[in-house]
Amino acid sequence: MLLQDMKTIPWRYISQILFTVLVLWIGIEFFLFVHQLESGQPVTIRRPPGVEAFLPIASLMSLRYWLATGIFTPIHPSGLVIFMVILTIAIFLKKAFCSWVCPIGFLSEMLARVQKWIFGQSRYLPRWLDWPLRSLKYLLLGFFLWAILVQMDIAGIAAFLESPYSRVSDIKMLKFFTDMSPLTARVLAGLFLLSILIPYFWCRYLCPYGALLGGLSWLSPLKIRRNAASCTDCKKCTKVCPSNIPVHLKNTVYSDECHACLTCVAACPVKNTLDFSTSKPSLKLDSLRVVMVILCLFLGSSLLARALGVWHNDITVQEYREHVRKMSDGLEYSHPGR
Ligand code: SF4
Ligand code: SF4
Q1: Contact yes or no for 57/147 (Cβ under 8 A)
Q2: Are 101 and 16 in contact (CB under 8 A)?
Q3: Rounded distance, CA 201 to CA 207, Å?
């Protein structure tokens, strides 16, 4: 009975809200930390390491550097840990990160609901336009992979990771939002509006992180699988799919756009007809199990990284103060590649 009740709880929304609150808390803590540095006050707030989750390009470089040299970066170590957790989720749970964890995915979902509320139904771009636009995020991903994996050698990556720019890239990322240029504000407002007009505009067409996870999600042994023998062809699964996948026509959903939200599974009226499962031997994951796997991966890896001493970076408050002073004096901390 208790287990049955647990299954009716909207675990995905709880997960999204939990991670969004966590991200906001990390953002506020980091803002206050930087404010204390800039104002010359004693620093009483500890920099939250989770802020490095927003530096995926540095994390990709750190991953390559670690694989090539065996040295786990001391500059943004938690960024690398979180990056590997997210890649692991994609390899085993399709793009579940996008619909269970990512706050941008959550915001996109809310904006897609606004569109449905305005127009009475979800409106997608026609396929002839949708397909080429979906390739944009793969082009962006291809550029980053080419720049990091082909153009840079290990010495270049080491030089980048050690550069002053890299050491304060978290502060630069904060300033991108707190000292926003008019152009940046206009671009973000445009993306916001486009995400209301076209569901998941950023996620579906432009997010290179989503493209990376979509590529890896092909490896996932867990996929949406339909039992054609018991399927009544009611099409309820297809109607609710936020990724506009014709689920009722697929025996297995391979699509890189499937973010394992399990909305189709919940909508299917016939028991044991649509599942998030492996092929053989069959292992099924329901919403509760998905959220438990995701939470265990994040919590476990964070605790393990702390135990191994690779969670906090080795940049001291004094060094941060020095960087902040130089930046406020107008000294340019530009990208080493420029
Ligand atoms: S509704 Fe089903 S097929 Fe569509 S994205 Fe969610 S899990 Fe994938
Ligand atoms: S909702 Fe279930 S029964 Fe209906 S078409 Fe989809 S898989 Fe078949």
Answers
A1: no
A2: yes
A3: 9
Domain ranges of the chain: 2-222+288-328, 223-284
pLDDT tens sequence across 212-251: 999 999 999 999 999 999 999 999 999 999 999 999 999 9
**pLDDT tens digits, 112-152:** 999 999 998 888 999 999 999 999 999 999 999 999 999 99
**What is the model's pTM?**
0.93
Structure-block tokens of residue 34 = 């930087």
As a whole-number percent, the residues of the chain with pLDDT over 70 amount to: 95
- 14 CA to middle of ligand 2, Å? 26
Other C-beta atoms within 10 Å of 165: how many? Answer: 18
* Torsions phi, psi for 335 (to 5 deg): -60, 130
- The single-letter DSSP state of residue 95 is T
Identify the nearest ligand to the CA of 109 by its number. Answer: 1
Name the residue with the closest Cα to ligand 2, atom 2: 268
Query: Cβ(231)–Cβ(248) under 8 Å?
Result: yes
Average pLDDT, the chain: 94
232 Cα nearest atom in ligand 2: 3
pLDDT in tens, 268-284: 999 999 999 999 868 99
Whether ligand 2 lies within 6 angstroms of the CB of 101 is answered as no
Count CB-CB contacts under 10 A for residue 227.
14
Rg of the Cα atoms in the chain: 22
- CB of residue 195 inside a 6 A radius of ligand 2: no
CA of 13 to the centre of ligand 2 (A): 23
Q: Which of 217, 238, 263, 277 to mutate to test the pocket of ligand 1 (most atoms within 8 A of CB)?
A: 263
**70-102 per-position pLDDT tens digit:** 999 999 999 999 999 999 999 999 999 999 999
**223-284 has which fold?**
Alpha-Beta Plaits (3.30.70)
Order of all β-strands in the sheet with 274-277: 252-253, 223-226, 274-277
Q: How far apart are CA 224 and CA 252, in angstroms?
A: 6
